[in-house]
Specification:
Length: 269
């Protein structure tokens, strides 16, 4: 099992170079293609706000300014994508941008973002939500200390989202020096046995250890402490196990993980 295409959405902003560097770090051990995908604001989304007379006066000026900003952003993104990785390619999306982004992600194994979009900041915040929740693509939120081949902690509660993330992360775990399955049975309403996931990994040649947490309530703080204690570079977890509106209003494990300064996150919904 391996990864062949790693995708990094780019905005044309200052965070692009970091996103490309992280994507290259993930792609290199697999010899995978790196797709740097420029994701500009879509003119088609702006035009309805301009009204029937958008072809004249202020509206036309605004439209031209948007086109100029898009061109400048593409130039910046192209520069960031020229990272020296041999299998890097650059894709500039055209309107309809969101449809193009979806299409690119569906043919990618992992989509890489830096922390700001994952925390709802900047021009790629909506793209992050689209990738995780709507397209249900595996996403890696890259943070300082990201490393392939170190320690990976897998948070598992037997649920659909956590199990999907645990399965999709297998290629990453095959490269890891240490894999720790962390479970908090008292913080979950379901009954599950972490040894089942351990056996799943063993059948695929991945050795792992199990750590049971005694914490109750919100599992996120306990998971972050366990990841820090293990010296994990990456934490694998399910995302948005509850309806997104509920998680947005009331918080939730996913939001706590995204807001933390913990390790890089491998997430799947």
């Amino acid at each position: 099992m391996s990864w062949a295409r790693i995708m990094a959405p780019l905005s044309g902003g200052q965070g692009d170079a970091a996103a490309v560097a992280a994507a290259a770090m993930i792609a290199e051990p697999f010899g995978a293609e790196l797709a740097a995908v420029y994701t500009p604001a879509d003119v088609a989304d702006v035009m309805p706000w301009m009204g029937e007379g958008f072809l004249g006066g202020v509206q036309t000026t605004a439209l031209e300014s948007l086109k100029e900003a898009t061109a400048a952003g593409e130039a910046n993104a192209r520069k960031a994508a020229a990272c020296g990785y041999a299998k890097a390619q650059f894709v500039a999306l055209q309107t309809p941008v969101w449809a193009g982004l979806s299409a690119e992600s569906r043919l990618s194994d992992v989509v890489v973002f830096i922390s700001d979009p994952a925390r709802g900041r900047g021009p790629l915040a909506e793209a992050f939500q689209q990738m995780v929740a709507d397209e249900q693509r595996p996403v890696l939120v890259a943070r300082p200390g990201l490393k392939v081949g170190g320690t990976v902690v897998v948070a598992w509660d037997g649920g659909k989202e956590a199990s999907r993330a645990a399965r999709l992360a297998t290629p990453l775990l095959e490269k890891a020096a240490r894999v720790v399955i962390v479970a908090a049975p008292k913080a979950s309403s379901r009954s599950f046995d972490p040894a089942r996931l351990q056996a799943y990994y063993a059948a695929r040649g991945v050795e792992s250890e199990v750590q049971l947490l005694t914490d109750t309530g919100d599992a996120a703080p306990a998971l972050l402490r366990a990841a820090s204690s293990a010296g994990a570079e990456i934490l694998v977890a399910g995302a948005f196990g509850h309806p997104r509106l509920q998680e947005f209003i009331f918080g939730g494990t996913t939001r706590t993980l995204l807001s933390s300064d913990g390790p890089s996150l491998f997430l799947s919904h």
